[in-house]
Amino acid sequence: MQQIRWLWKPLVFLACLLPALRLTAGALNALGLWHIGGVALGADPVKVMLHTCGRWTLNFVMITLCMTPLRDLTHWVGWLRFRRMLGLFAFFYVLLHFSVYLLLDQSGKLGALWQDIVKRPYITIGMLGLLLLIPLAATSTAAAQRRLGRRWTRLHRLIYAIAILGVWHFWWQVKKDIREPLLYACGLTLLLGYRLWKQRRSLARISVARLAKPDEA
């Protein structure tokens, strides 16, 4: 476990930060402040930044949900040591996504933001997902977990609703080509289906154990 803490966690942290660093370099290129070869955001840099941050938010939510199945399949509990970091990176990228949308796309106008939330359902869903991520990020520490006890587990099950809202937001945001959001929807269905199957199998084992007790007596 020490190797995870001192080697793998820093490497995973840097890997998770790379998309944000690349966007920062692209933004500096677009502003003419710093030229870096091979890093460009195209003709509409705001749109590229907005969509990239949104996709990486969804990517990190999905990767976070993969940690438990990976632990079960590989029988290596170390996967769970990355879960909090990955979840916090999902929050980090959704904040970037929202900041780009508010400050660059809407020029910081709160009135325009509110009109979009009311009039565009996919933005309404996206904002709801952002709001649900806030308490998860705020209670991500070990101290919060100890303080909340069982309530912490129930609270952090919101990640399933957040994942659904994220895929839904992406699906409604695209206009014609739904292949990419469809891939996310299929992946999420598998991840949630696995958890449902695991829960039912656990309940079945408990039922069998309860039925077997009178016979043993």
Structural write-up:
This protein has 217 residues and is mainly α. The protein has one domain (2-185). 82% of the residues lie in helices and 0% in strands. It is built from 9 helices and no strands. The model has no long low-confidence stretch (mean pLDDT 90).
Sheet with most strands = none
Low-confidence spans: none
Average pLDDT, all residues: 90
- 3D shape: globular
Radius of gyration (CA) equals 21 Å
Report the order of strands and helices: HHHHHHHHH
N-C termini distance: 43 Å
Count of strand segments: 0
- Note the total helix count: 9
Strand percentage lies at under 5%
- Classify the secondary structure makeup into a structural class: mainly alpha
Whole-number tally of structural domains: 1
Helix content: over 70%
Brief rundown of the structure:
By secondary structure, this protein is mainly alpha-helical.
List the main descriptive attributes of the protein structure presented here.
single chain, 217 residues, mainly alpha
Topology:
Blueprint: H1 2-31, H2 45-74, H3 83-105, H4 110-119, H5 121-138, H6 142-148, H7 150-156, H8 158-173, H9 179-216
